[in-house]
Amino acid sequence: MKIIEVKDYQQMSNKAAEYIIEKVVQNPSIKLGLATGGTPIGTYKSLIEDHKKNGTSYQKVTTFNLDEYIGLAGDNKNSYRYFMDDQLFNYIDINKAKTNIPSGIAADFQDECNRYEDLIAKHGGVDLQILGIGSNGHIGFNEPGTSFASKTHIVKLAPSTIQANARFFKGMEEVPTQAITMGISTIMKSKEILLLVSGDNKKEALYRLMNGEISESFPASVLKNHPCVTIIADKAAIADLKVQC
Ligand code: F6R
Question: Which of 19, 142, 232, 241 could form a disulfide with 146 if both were Cys (CB 3.0 to 4.6 A apart)?
Answer without folding.
Answer: 142
